[in-house]
Every structure is written in C-alpha cells, then in structure tokens.
Amino acid sequence: MSSRQARTSLRIGPAGTIFILRGKPHASASLPRERDLAMKPARMHPPIHAALWLVFALLLVPASRVPTAFAATRVFSDADKGATVQLKVGDVVELHLQSNPSTGFAWYVHPQSTHLLKIIGQSQTESTEPGVGRPVIQIFKFQAVKTGDGVLLLHYVRSWEKPSADEQQFDLHVSIR
Asked: 73-176: what fold?
C-alpha cells in the first residue's frame, strides 16, 4: 500500500455509533466523542415516541370492551305491568310509562327494585299539546348486569310526599341468564 492510498476502517463507538475512519490508523488515536461528530446518531424524538404510545393505547381500547353486538333491546309499556321476561346479561330493558309531571307525579325506581338491572338512561317525551296537566312518557333504560331472578319495581309518587300504601306501582319480573 502506497503512502497516498488511504486506508478505510469501521469502528463501533459508544451507544452503537459506527465511525468510518480514513487514513492510517494510529495506535494512540481515540474515537471521536459524540459531541464532536458532524451528524448525531438517529434517535426517536420524545413527541414521536409519545404519539406512538397514544396510537397503541387507542388501538387497545376497543379490544378491551365487552362485546354487546348480540345484546337485545326490549321495550315495555304500562300494558306490560306484572309480566315476566327472559333476558341475557347485556340486554337492555326500555320502559315507556305515562306520567304527568306538571302535577308533581313522576315515576321513580323503588328502593326495593332488583339490583340485577342497572339504570343507564332516563328521559321523557314532550307533550304534544301546550298547557298544564298534559301527559308525557317517561323513558327508563336498564341494562342486565347479573344473572338471576328479580323484580324491577317503580312507583308513581310526588317526590316531596311520604310513600303510601295506595301509590301506583309498576313491576316487571325479570329472569336473567
């Protein structure tokens, strides 16, 4: 090898950095430090790293949900008082009960009602005619959360009055499998 020909060698430095050295290597020559390099080693930037973790976490959320694709919604009304229904865990029971909130009366879930159903929503329709004393439909949505037999019990009362023996009630017997 002539003195004009440069010799090329590769060296691996700290943190896996590859250095290409040209020229005649000298025994006392040390590898350049990272701060002396013209190009720094490629590293993932923290914002990109955080964004990748966020995408990964968002992909896991749908996978962790309980599938409710086969859950049925069953609708009941005043006419179904006292009925017995068969449900599966995850099914939704929707009650449509007529009430007159302008007189102070409304449907409320009775404290002795079954705990096999969890209330997941409550709303009411608007009266079709203006004025006091017009009926509306209160809508309750419950989801079956446990297996077993129980009674869904609601009572029609004024919230400020004490319960009485002659209050109107709605009961629906549920069997959840």
From this structure: Immunoglobulin-like (2.60.40)
pLDDT in tens, 133-150: 888 999 999 999 999 999
What SS3 class is residue 157?
strand
Q: Where are the domains of the chain?
A: 8-64, 73-176
Distance, in Å, from the CA atom of 61 to the CA atom of 119, rounded to the nearest integer, reads: 24
pTM above 0.90, yes or no: no
Are 119 and 141 in contact by the 8 Å Cβ rule? The answer is: yes
Tokens of 34: 């990272």
Enter the DSSP assignment of 8.
E
Cβ neighbours of residue 50 under 8 Å, at least 6 residues apart?
A: none
Strands 18-22 vs 84-87: parallel, antiparallel or unpaired: unpaired
DSSP for 148-170 reads EEEEEEEEEEETTSPP-TT-EEE
Contact status, residue 80 vs residue 172, Cβ threshold 8 Å: yes
Burial class (CB in 10 A: 0-12, 13-18, 19+), 16: exposed
